[in-house]
Amino acid sequence: MNKLESKQVNFYYGSSHALKDINLAIEANTVTALIGPSGCGKSTYLRLFNRMNDLISDTRLTGEVIIDGVNIYKKGINVDNLRKMTGMVFQKPNPFPKSIFENVAYGLRVNGITDKKFIEERVETTIKQVVLWDEVKDKLKKSAFELSGGQQQRLCIARAMAIQPSVILMDEPTSALDPISTSKVEELIHELKTKYTIVIVTHNMQQAARVSDHTAFFYLGELVEYGVTKQIFTNPNVERTQNYITGRFG
Amino acid sequence: MKPFFKNFSEKLIEGLLMICGTITSLTVVLIVFFLFKEGLGVFNKKAVEEGYVVMVNKSNPVNSISPEDIKNIFDSKITSWKDLGGKNDSIILFRLEDISNYFTDEQIGENFEGLPLLLNRVVDSIPQILAFFPEKYLGKNFKGREIEAGKITFSTFFGGKEWFPTAQPAAQLGVMPLVMGTLWVSLGAILLALPLGLAAAIFLSEIAKDKVRRVMKPLIELLAGIPSVVYGFFGLVVIVPAIQKLFNLPVGETGLAGSIILGIMALPTIITISEDAMRNTPRAMKEASLALGASKWQTIYKIVIPYSISGISAAAILGIGRAIGETMAVLMVTGNAAVIPTSILEPMRTIPATIAAELGEAPDGGLHYKALFALGCILFIITLVINLIVEFISGSKKNRRV
Amino acid sequence: MAIDENKITRSKKRNQSIAFCVFAVIGFLIVAILVTVLSFIVIKGIGVINWDFITKMPEDGMTKGGIYPAIIGTLCLVGGSMIFAFPIGVMAAICMNEYVKDGILKKIIKQMTNNLSGVPSIVFGLFGMALFVNKLGFGDSILAGSLTLGLLALPVVIRTTEEALKAVDDTFRHASLGLGATTWQTTRNVVLPIAFPNIITGLILSVGRVSGETAPILFTVAAYFLPKLPTSIFDQAMALPYHLYVLSTSGTNIEESRPIAYGTALVLIIIVLLTNILANILRKYFSKKVKMN
Fold first, then answer.
1. Nearest CA in chain A to C7
2. Is residue A135 part of a domain?
3. Distance from the CA of C127 to the CA of which of A30, A135, B357, C205 falls in 20 to 30 A?
């Protein structure tokens, strides 16, 4: 079964039509890259899956967005719980003004977990998963702002993973990082794929080619092409995709 | 010629701008100078009426009497020299008019020409005497000893429990009642205004719809502009009678009335500043919290409030500062009794209200006048400290973000 | 599936609804309080205000007649204080923002302005009395009162002007300087025209502030009862806020002069409202004009 799916999704900011009739199905335990020029709707599309667009007033959606076979926009859906199932990593590292430990524990605490030992164990395993443990194990009580940008972003990934979501949504997660930190995050994405379904928005063609199994190309709110990454990058079916990938516009 | 002129006029303008820039700085210096010059003049002055001397017998070991003691002696609350650090003898108080108890009118003489001699005799012959009389009747070779009576020191000024600057024979200049009154009224105001203001700020910045916000915010800002005398008037005609009725009090002019009015006046300050601070919370941070499954309310109290805490505390402190310095509204509704308060339902008097109420009656350059300037100094120092605290708080926030 | 409701989500939801309810109630309560203050004065005062009220002298121990001299007095004070504070304040702000480089001098001026804006108005009154009334020998006069109020308005004018100047994007300055213009030419021809609307708005807002101040004029100008108009800047004068204070606390017959007090309060509020509205209109008007050019 498909993990994520959208059926005839249209999305509007006020009167502007941001997403036009998007049909897409994403398999479990794969990495899917969303590419396209700025303002093409890829970030908007990503944010449909944890209903982040609800926070913006005067928006409207038609069609169905489906996770595990359930339309997440139907009535009676608990949005907090939905967001708990889907982790999100943002453009810039945005740790909370709390300690390193508390950043990772945050998701557990707000979801009603109080067992101290459980939280400690979960925080440790998660930080180890993002390969940050050796760097921070002696300063878990220190402010998260003391970490470098790359460390902060990995911490934010750990924060998203601590509540064990099945989907991780990444919105240009390396756009604010240096090349070394970027490659560390990319390695991490590769490893995480075995456990999670990952959707990543990126501006960086090479990154999409490196990390993803499938790629979707968005242009002016439309899904132009979707397919296996290798095919999209070497032999696209649509000319616009070809032009974008080879850098003729963007 | 022309470029020279242009150059010259530009230099002139530049100079003018510099002068204006320094004027502001100079103003503060001038304020400090005048306030403290007059205000510090109150210390080491004598609280006894000008032109009077206080004499004791030569054998008396007491060297000084505080203004408060003088009053207590006249009120017969202190009757023994022992209480003043002297011998175990009762005090015999002697005022000029008492002279007729000791001598006949003939001895005094028609134009009081016999007075210096007689006064000398009285003070010399009664060891327990404490004599008050005008300096002009002080004869040569006076056998008594002048003591330092009613000297105003830092401790009598800041520790004194009574404020009665026109009291006879010694002005009582203790700021305790005024300081306590100011504290009670301001703290009451902030206790009312802070929770309400914070709740309103949270509502405005995080919960309210855009439409509601757009109506509410300018309204609240507008109310910051209403003159304090109008608030005072409102308090006088509405809140004061209501308090009197509600608590069944003889008068409604109480500390509580002042706290309520000051609280209302501090609300706009607290709301706008803390709302601004909350709105400065990065959107990405709020979204990250929501994306982890936190509810909106959890995000507010776990992320938004901790993030904006320095702005919120600045708002609280500035609110207190405004409350402490506010004059007219308080003057109109608190009843202005200069007594150390024991309950919020008593009339109280604050420092600014005292200045406003009494400066008109205090003769220029006199003790009372100087004492009121000293109160002004206290206010100035308080506001200075508050400014520094606020700056420190916002400064430390900047450092944290880097 | 885990999306469904459970115990934790229910309690999260309940806590949130309770909290939001409380905040909304408090938010509207505060607006209600503030609206009550306003509407109370408006309702009580509206019946008093008429042409005679604002153009007649007070009569019968201030229980009858109008508040004409108080209105004129306040106008004189506001005008006088602005003549003093506006040029100095604007120039000081220009000096700080366009000329002085970041450094010790700027820090000092900034610190001083900050401190000045926090000083309670009664302290300004004390200072005005000591310097203008006594030391310089102006006596209780419009001059002394205007100067005192001007000092009080100075930090307000400086701060708003500075904000207006800061809002001008640096690219404008760089473009002008890059063409070889001097700092002053840049300021006069580029920065000031763009910042002008906001500077004017700041001026009007400080007029609103100054017109309502009572404490600084208590000992520098205000006359308890003076049924004639001032003829020179060395005359005493009545003023609206002080008049309201006197009427409500120490008039000869407080009960009978109540209606006049309500009327005076309303006039004061109207002045504040008008200055606010005027400031907004001007800001909009000017910002359109700047855009068009």
1. A112
2. no
3. C205
Is B302 an 8 Å CB contact of chain A?
Answer: yes
Half-sphere CA count of A227, side-chain side, radius 13 A: 12
Return residues 40-79 of B near C (CB < 8 Å): none
Q: For residue A17, what are the domain limits? A: 2-94+167-245
Q: Which CATH superfamily groups domain B52-173?
A: Periplasmic binding protein-like II (3.40.190.10)
| ipTM of this complex prediction, to 2 decimal places | 0.89
Chain C residue nearest residue A86, CA to CA: C3
> For chain B, what are the domain ranges?
52-173, 176-401
Beta carbons of A77 and C3 less than 8 Å apart: yes
Q: Are strands A2-13 and A16-27 parallel, antiparallel or unpaired?
A: antiparallel
Q: Closest partner residue to C218 among B237, B356, B379, by Cβ?
A: B356
Q: Decide: helix, strand or coil at residue B335.
A: strand
What are the pLDDT digits (tens) for B68-114?
Answer: 888 888 877 888 888 887 788 888 888 877 877 888 777 777 777 77
Residue A101: inside a domain = no
Domain covering B176-401 assigned CATH 1.20.810.10 in the classification? no
C30–B324 CB contact, under 8 Å: no
Residue A9 lies in a domain: yes
End-to-end CA distance of chain C: 61
- Please give the tally of structural domains in chain A: 1
pLDDT at C6 over 90: no
Question: Residue A40 belongs to a domain with what CATH number?
Answer: 3.40.50.300
CA distance A61 to A10: 6
Q: Which of A224, A220, A200, A171 is nearest to A52 (CA)?
A: A171
Task: Report pLDDT digits (tens) over B306-348.
Answer: 999 989 999 999 899 889 999 999 999 998 888 888 888 989 9
Residues with pLDDT less than 50, chain B: 1, 399-402
